[in-house]
Amino acid sequence: MKSIVDPKSNLQAFRELIILLTRHRQLTMEMAKREITDRYSGQFFGVFWAIGHPLIMMLVYAFIFGFVFKVKIGSTATMPLNYTIYMLSGLIPWMAFQESMAKASFAIVGNANLVRQFVFPIEVLPVKGVIATLITQVIFLLLLIIYVLISQHMLPLIYFLLPVLVFFQVLAMIGVSYVLSAIGVYFRDIKDLVQVFAVVGVYLIPAFYLPEYVPKPFLPILYLNPFSYLIWCFQDVLYFGWFAHPMAWLVNIVLSLFIFIFGYRFFRKLRIMFGNVL
Amino acid sequence: MSSSVISIENLSQAYPIYKKPSDMLWETVTGKVQHDLFWALHNISFNVDAGQRVGLIGPNGAGKSTLLQIIAGNLKPTSGKVHVNGSISALLSLAPSWNIEESGIENIRFNLLMRGCDNRQIKLLTDEIIDFAELGQFIYQPVKTYSSGMSARLSFAIGTAISPEILIVDEVLGAGDGYFAGKAVRRMKDVCDQGKALLFVSHSTAAVRQMCDTAIWIEDGSIRLQGSVDHVTNMYEEDMARSNDQSIRLANIRRIEKNIHLVMPDDLDGPDIVRLRLRLPEDSKTAGARYIQEIRFQWDSPFQENNIQVPLDDSNNRFDSYLELMGCEWGRLYTRQNVIVRMLTPRTGAKKGGHILLKRPAEFASQAWQIKVTWTEVFDSSTDLILEYVDPIAVVWKPFKILSKETLSKGWIRFVASEMLFPTDDISIEQAKITVKERRLSPIEILDAVAIGKKSLENTIAEREPFSIHVHVECLDDAPPFCLNLIVYRTDGVYMFWQPSDYHRQLDTSGAKNITVIFNFDDNYFSSGDYEITAVANTSPWHKDIIQSETEVFDRKTSISRFSITKEIQTVQFGAVNYRARVEIIKENDKP
User: Looking at chain A, which residue has its C-alpha nearest residue B112?
Assistant: First the structure.
């Protein structure tokens, strides 16, 4: 237990992982490319589904909450942008995150043939799913920026922090992917758990509502959920336009770094037995 | 040690076997062991030196592929040490990581990336791979348009491109045409000549002989033999042929029942060794494995050592008692309910039962020895095992008297048996050997076969030269009429010729002790090369008393002899599959 927080071994693992990912970046990219093309090969709309699936989900959410329930958030002096942007600024990172988790839960199991029959750095397998989903997220973020530009005719300066935020999100996604993919080898039910979590989790993050709307007894759930902090950071950049949740930034960055290193160390510990279990 | 590229010490690999998947979860939650262990490899040790080409041979499921995966680093061994000194390139499967929608070029790039190449190396190696694979314009086509031979070529080219220090190949030459196979052999030899090592797994002894200088024969997860490639492959082929022939002969159930108590030539040991066996009863309908937990010998003696336990995980004659693991029905080690047990699996072609050897103490060298045997097995079958010992005087297996049968906890059951073992000496063992040799199991025995040309040496025939194959057969007095089948294979396993002696008409084989069946090849359609003769004697299909379904195989000799056809000036392409030889027989030693 002590070694989880031991700075020396953490730093060492961090360096090891960075070296590994830089050395095999081409392989990772190539695998991510394959992941996208293989997933949709032979389908009529092909790669469109990578965008189409989350796009339809978002349209449904926007319709239900914006038009049917007529949720009124924003368009005030402190929150000038409209509800759709509020909702999307939370949904975009959340959907990418849960997509990468779903991919990670069978990143190793689904490539059992590769793992068993080839000698190659299997550490790239969980990362390739992250890269693949990241592409979708970047496209959505660009669409959102265009939407904001059209509706507001300007972008807040804080939008320049978006790459930084995405960078830490990627670290967290890689870390979580390492953990889930390693568990997935031993405990195959994990992919169903992740699916259930994806459906439920979207309501556990402050994406559709403001924290103030949550009844007091349930507030701890929101604050204990690490994804809330990620969402608040994205809302700060994309919606509020200023550091509305400074604590969330601190928590998000520290947590991302921690899970990145912890995930890799967890994976490294379990990987030697993969071949025996698969 | 320093020159070893791969050194393996006491390597063992066990696979957990769960009765149901929920046991696995239960085990991780509670930490209480819920699984059995199947020992795929047990106590493997060997070294591979630089420049050595090692072939791994053995039947299916012997553990060869598991061993390769451990060496390649894809599996973590349960125990033992693996030391690999150098970079490994493994062709563990025929199909590399193909994306069948992408072209050959793109797949080359991907697979080189997987093997850790950078852009500069990829550029360099891609041309080399394209040259070697010789796929022409196909290299720009999607891999899904390739034939299996083409993808095998590309796969091999990629696998050997980065000139690894250690090349591991698992049955990759199977596909691909003869021309490419030759190229592949040269490439592998080149790799080894650069001071690197090759590990080659194949079922084909011909391929191993061609590729390797040493061979390791693996069976049931242990090394059965290792040494020079010719020695090991010859022994392996002999063993395969023997068990093949034996299983054919034993297919006749009536004969098994009659012969099961008879001692075979290699069941006879010196007077200071008692050979026992645990076997299933002959009428046992269940063919499942049995699990033996403990075997213990006890006897009354004024001296101390009178209670010994047979080590189940080792076969070594430095012990007072040990299992004979090879060639009989002992199977793998298995860990059941946390106890190491030895499997006893019925199999054809092996000696019946699991053999146990026990050294006879000096004090009982010349007096009767009353011993008590205790063994424990898991009881999941309705039939009890039979314990027997070799009686060299009667030259039969004699059963032990079962004293008690006691059910222990968790389904284990303990048997106690006892018997009086009388002393023997070298003379009676010699006598027994003679008795065994003279005792014939079959009324008809094939002695040998020889190919004789019109002018050349025995078994060496010139191309197109008429020749004949003489098969010598020995018959007992009551031998029924038989038909002799002659089968010819090329030494690389290609089927060439098969003909029963009474293909045209029934030949009269009655009334003689020694019969020579001659197959005349008046037209020699065999092309130059080496050939193997297999001979099978069975009931004649013409025989009026025999119903077709009762056809009985009297004797079968696989690869009983070899002959070669030497190359002449004119080269002709032809085959013998549809040729029919003219058959005649010669009888000698007419019975009175």
Answer: A27
CA distance to partner chain B, nearest, from residue A118 (Å): 7
Measure A226 CA to nearest chain B CA, in Å: 26
ipTM over 0.90: no
- Angle formed at CA B507 by CA B502 and CA B512, multiple of 5 degrees: 135
Q: What pLDDT does residue A102 have?
A: 92
At the top level of CATH, which class does the domain B49-239 belong to?
A: alpha beta
Checking if the pLDDT of A261 tops 90, the result is yes
Min mean pLDDT across B87-91, B138-142, B529-533 is at B87-91
A-B interface: how many C-beta pairs under 8 angstroms?
Answer: 59
Q: B323 is written with which tokens?
A: 């299992």
Closest-CA distance of chain A to residue B11, Å:
15
Nearest residue in A to B111, CA atom: A27
Nearest of B325, B396, B172, B352 to residue B247 by alpha carbon: B352
Establish how many alpha carbons lie within 13 A of residue B378's alpha carbon, considering only the half-sphere containing its beta carbon. 19
Please answer yes or no on whether B99 and A34 come within 8 Å at the CB atom.
yes
Provide, as residue numbers in chain B, all residues whose Cβ is less than 8 Å from the Cβ of A119.
72-74, 88-90, 115
Residues of chain B with CATH 3.40.50.300: 49-239
Interface test with A, best of B70, B114, B118 (most A CBs within 10 A): B114
In chain A, domain spans = 7-38+46-277
Confidence of residue A227 (pLDDT cuts 50, 70, 90): very high
pLDDT at B246: 63
Question: Six-digit token pair at B101?
Answer: 């929608």
Taking the Cβ of residue A24 and every Cβ of chain B, the question of whether any pair is shorter than 8 Å is answered with yes
**CB B536 within 8 Å of CB B553:** yes
Contact of B39 with B332, CB cutoff 8 Å: yes
Confidence check: pLDDT of B192 > 80: no
Cα angle for residues B11, A119, B37 (degrees, 5° grid): 35
List own/partner pairs for B225-229 with CB under 8 A and 24 or more apart: B226/B46, B229/B55
Q: Using 50, 70 and 90 to split pLDDT, how confident is the model at B157? A: confident
Mean pLDDT rounded to a whole number for chain B: 79
3-state secondary structure of B331: strand
Mean pLDDT, rounded, for A61-87: 79
Is A84:A91 a contact under the CB 8 Å cutoff? no
Q: Are A67 and A216 in contact (CB under 8 A)?
A: no
Contacts of A84 (CB under 8 A, 6+ apart): A62, A66
Task: State which residue of chain B sits closest to A22, comparing Cα positions.
Answer: B118
Band (pLDDT 50/70/90 cuts) for residue B409 is confident
pLDDT value of residue B361: 84
Tell which CATH classification among 3.40.47.10, 2.40.50.140, 2.70.50.60, 1.20.140.10 matches the domain B444-590: 2.70.50.60
Quote the minimal CA–CA distance from B294 to chain A in Å.
Answer: 29
Residue-wise pLDDT for A165-213, tens only, equals: 999 999 999 999 999 999 888 888 888 999 999 889 988 998 888 888 8
Q: Closest CB to B72: pick one of A24, A41, A119.
A: A119
Where are the domain boundaries for CATH 2.70.50.60 in chain B? 444-590
**Which residues from B are below 8 Å from A when comparing CB atoms?**
15, 24-25, 28, 69, 72-76, 88-90, 92-93, 96-97, 99, 101, 109-110, 113-116, 118-119
Res. B253 pLDDT band, cuts 50 70 90: very low
Q: Which residues of B245-258 are buried (b: 16+ CB within 10 A; e: fewer)?
A: bbebbbebeebeee
The residue among B22, B82, B91, B113 with the most chain A CBs within 10 A of its CB, best to mutate, is: B113
Question: Is A22's Cβ below 8 Å from some Cβ in B?
Answer: no
